[in-house]
Structures are given as structure tokens and as C-alpha cells.
Design goal:
This is Transglycosylase SLT domain-containing protein. Keywords: Signal. InterPro entries: LysM, LysM_dom_sf, Lysozyme-like_dom_sf, Transglyc_AS, Transglycosylase_SLT_dom_1. Belongs to the transglycosylase Slt family. This protein is mainly alpha-helical. About 45% of the residues lie in helices and about 5% in strands. The two termini are about 30 Å apart. The protein folds into 3 domains: about 240 residues, Lysozyme (Orthogonal Bundle), CATH 1.10.530; about 60 residues, no CATH class; about 70 residues, no CATH class.
Length: about 450
């Protein structure tokens, strides 16, 4: 943002005028940043400026007002700025996907005193698609791999994956970025570490120090893999375009500077379809705000919240009071040691094989292994009630190829191949240079 932390509204107003999009555009008229603008290297002071202090009506303006990472000026920034601006329809779609989430992300950044351009990082990470999944199994808006997700208390079980949840993953990502900034004292290096791993960045810093070379991002970039070398320039490119979209013939859909959603407490298990119905939302709309839920039932009791637009939250409460029926039609069933077919399971629980497969993501021509816990429809009063917390936390499911008595030998070969494939996949994952693998 600026070199001094603003402590009064009058000072904030003057600083805001100086950092307006038009002023920024003048510094960046060629589409690539000119002389780097001096900006605060430290995070902003938490709570110094609130939304009412500068009366922004649009979230994009609010983001511009909080720019605080020093600008980067090199050929990669120019190349990525050109590439993004050459696809205005793509940026418009990404911005549309971002609209339910951006206010919350910016608000959380401001609470922590962090640069608001970090709200643009999911453009690079996931194109603001909460269902994004990389080849290295990094998931969600902020692309956490499973291990780092666990480090930041993001629950991952059979029923939900909080790496995809808007509230939990944003909190985790900002905590991680703050930790990296504290470690390196530089936002560009913190971002490089977010992408490549702090251990790798520390290693190349030590290498350049031993050679008497610089340890800033640009001095270290040649030692980074291509993905990381381009990572910070990509964020700078998006930052340039958001600073002055008209200059790049980009239209950013207006996003009101007010909360899009509110959190609603659950009191018992509820089917995703029922929750959407009570909120008077389509399934797609509901899932866009609650992408962490992996099954057709939302478990977790009072510890689990669902996100709804404010108006829909009011409808949810009104309709819930008049519902008068069970909220969930699902329970769990543990597979015993005996081999059982999907058709037999469907018959036992009064449903179809397709529904069993869909609810449990069972691949075609596969069945579930003994010891697995699967989701099944409730069929009796004895199966009423919520799914137990110990099941939620510990349930696992594993698959194997279906086989008949005549194909035992072939099936055994399939299992061997599956194990070989699994081992190969693990080796590929270990050798991948994907984000945040190396701690």
C-alpha cells in the first residue's frame, strides 16, 4: 500500500487518493510495471482501516486500496499480463466464480493486516474453482496437498475435505502465508515458498549467500523451477489488470462490498438435497458455497456449519421449522469379511446398484473390500439418528475388482496390477515438484 501505516481517517483518505487505480495505471501504462513503486514490505497493521473508512462500494476497489507487496518488473510479468489480458472472457469467468468468496477473503486479510492482493492468489492456484484438484492431489481454492492440510487442521475424511471449504481453507492459507512471511521477511519469497516449499527457498537463499549473491526473489528466480519462477510474476500480472482493467480491455464483474454468505449452525445430519431445498437454492448453488462435503449427507452435528446467502439463510430457518420429517435419509454400513456384491447390497437396503455406487464413488466393475464403511439408505427405525462421530472420523472405504468364481486367476492379476499401479502413482507423487510438498 504505502510506506506508512495510516492511523487516522484523514491520513487514510490521502493515501488512498495516491494509490487509486488511475494513479497506479499511470505507473503501468505499458502493461508491464515501470519503475517499481515503493510499497510497505511489512504487513499492514491489523484493524487500522475498516471498510467504512474508505467507503468502497466494490470489492475490486477494496483490493486495490490494500495493495502492499512491492511491485515486480520483469519480462515474465509482461508476458503473463499480456497472456491474461488476451483472454478477457476467461478472466470474466474466473471473476464470476470468485464473486461469492472475495469479500470474505479480503475481510480476513484485513483482519490480519495482510496485503489484499493476496486475495487474487486463487486466480493462479485454482482459477477460483473450489473443486480444483491437481495431479499431486492439491485441492480447493488454495490448493493444499493432504499433508499440509493436516498441518493446518483441515479435516479430511470420508465425509468431508476441508481443503475445499471456503472458511477453513482460507483461514489455513492465510495462516500459512503469515508463517512464511515471518520466516523470510519478504512477501515475494513467502509466495515462492507457498508454491515450492520453504525448505527449497531456504536452500537457495543459503546457496546465494555463500556465493555473495543477492537473496531477493529476482536474484533467486534462476534457481527455482519454472512453475515457481513464474508464480510471483503471474500474481503481479493479475494485480496489474485488477489495478486498471480498462487499460487491458478487461471487464471485471461488479462484486458488492458486503458479505455474500452467512454461516448457519447445523443441529443434526442433513441431506445435501434437503439443505438446498430448505434454502430454496439449486444443488449447484449450494455446493458452490459448501464444496467440502463429499457425500449426499452432511454430518458433524453442531461442529459443522453450512454457508448460505443471507436471504436464503432466512428461508432455510423458516422452512426448517415447518419441515416435520427426517432431515437425513442416509446411514452407514460396515462390510464384513464375506465378499458381497454391489447388487446384493442394493437389494438389502432397498435401492439400486447405481445409487450405492454414486453415493460411495465406487468405480465401475469394482466392489468394496471387507472392513470398508459405506453410505446406505436408512431402511428401519433402528437406523434412525445421526452417524456417530467415531465413524465420521475413522471410516475408510477401499475397492477391488469384481470377480466371479471362473475368473479368480484373472482377478488376482488385476489386484497385482492395481498394487503396481498404486506403487507407481506413489513414486510419481514423491518425484513431483508440485506445490508445498517439501516442508
Amino acid at each position: 500500500m504505502h510506506d506508512m501505516i495510516r492511523s487516522t481517517l484523514a491520513t487514510a483518505a490521502l493515501a488512498l487518493l495516491a494509490s487509486s487505480p488511475l494513479a497506479h495505471a499511470a505507473d503501468n501504462a505499458a502493461g508491464v510495471t515501470g519503475a517499481p513503486v515503493a510499497r510497505a514490505a511489512l504487513p499492514l497493521a491489523p484493524g487500522v482501516i475498516k471498510v467504512d473508512d474508505y467507503k468502497e462500494t466494490d470489492v475490486w476497489g477494496r483490493i486495490r486500496s490494500g495493495y502492499a507487496i512491492p511491485d515486480l518488473d520483469n519480462s515474465l510479468v509482461g508476458r503473463h499480463t499480456q497472456a491474461y489480458s488476451a483472454r478477457p472472457d476467461s478472466l470474466k469467468r474466473i471473476s464470476g466464480r470468485a464473486s461469492p468468496y472475495l469479500f470474505h477473503i479480503v475481510q480476513e486479510l484485513e483482519k490480519r493486516g495482510m496485503p489484499t492482493e493476496l486475495a487474487l492468489l486463487p486466480v493462479i492456484e485454482s482459477a477460483f474453482n473450489p473443486q480444483a484438484l491437481s495431479t499431486a492431489n492439491a485441492a480447493g481454492l488454495w490448493q493444499f496437498v493432504p499433508g499440509t492440510g493436516k498441518d493446518y487442521d483441515l479435516k479430511q475424511n470420508m465425509f468431508k475435505d476441508e481443503r475445499r471449504g471456503v472458511l477453513a481453507s482460507t483461514d489455513a492459507a492465510l495462516s500459512y502465508l503469515q508463517r512464511l512471511y515471518t520466516m523470510f521477511g519478504d512477501w515475494q519469497l513467502a509466495l515462492a515458498a507457498y508454491n515450492w516449499g520453504e525448505g527449497n527457498v531456504q536452500r537457495i537463499i543459503k546457496k546465494n549467500q555463500s556465493l555473495g549473491k543477492g537473496t531477493d526473489f529476482e536474484s533467486l528466480a534462476e534457481l527455482m523451477p519454472p512453475e515457481t519462477r513464474n508464480y510471483v510474476p503471474k500474481l503481479q500480472a493479475v494485480k496489474n489488470i485488477v489495478a486498471n482493467p480498462q487499460q487491458y480491455n478487461v471487464i471485471l464483474p461488479a462484486i458488492d462490498n458486503q458479505p455474500y454468505f452467512t454461516a448457519v449452525d447445523k443441529t443434526s445430519d442433513i441431506d445435501v438435497a434437503v439443505a438446498a431445498q430448505l434454502a430454496e437454492m439449486s444443488l449447484d448453488e449450494f455446493k458452490a458455497l459448501n464444496p467440502q462435503f463429499k457425500k449426499p449427507v452432511i454430518t458433524g452435528g453442531e461442529k459443522t456449519k453450512i454457508l448460505l446467502p443471507k436471504d436464503n439463510a432466512e428461508k432455510f430457518h423458516l422452512n426448517l421449522a415447518q419441515w416435520g420429517r427426517e432431515l437425513s435419509s442416509w446411514t452407514t454400513h460396515k462390510i464384513t469379511g464375506a465378499r458381497v456384491s454391489i447388487a446384493a447390497l442394493a437389494s438389502k437396503f432397498g435401492t439400486t446398484p447405481e445409487i450405492i455406487r454414486q453415493a460411495n464413488n465406487i468405480p465401475a466393475k469394482s466392489t468394496v473390500k471387507a472392513g470398508s464403511t459405506i453410505l446406505v439408505p436408512k431402511v428401519s427405525a433402528s437406523s434412525a439418528g445421526d452417524i456417530a462421530e467415531n465413524i465420521i472420523d475413522n471410516a475408510v472405504v477401499a475397492f477391488e475388482a469384481e470377480r466371479s468364481a471362473k475368473k479368480v486367476k484373472a482377478s488376482s492379476g488385476s489386484r497385482y496390477k492395481a498394487k503396481a499401479d498404486a506403487g507407481s502413482s506413489k513414486r510419481i507423487a514423491r518425484n513431483s515438484s508440485s506445490k508445498r510438498k517439501q516442508r
